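Consider the subject:
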Amino acid sequence: MAETASIEAATRRLYAAVEALESAVERRLQVERQEAALAAQLHALGADRSRLASALDGAEARAEKLAGANHEVSRRLGSAMETIRAVLAAQER
């Protein structure tokens, strides 16, 4: 009887240990899945950052072109206004 009780107790401990091991393995697998998901998100964020940086560079280049064009238009308008004023002044004389 004592041997049977010892075997049953050892069996219960073994089952408990196996269950604890299975739980630990499942937790570890869950952590690995979460790490993989985070790595994928990090990769996507890096790709987005690169794309946005490229778009920003393009927008800055366009803004510089527009600023140059704006300056040239302003200069030409000023010149045209001076020419018109000169023509009007000459006609008044």
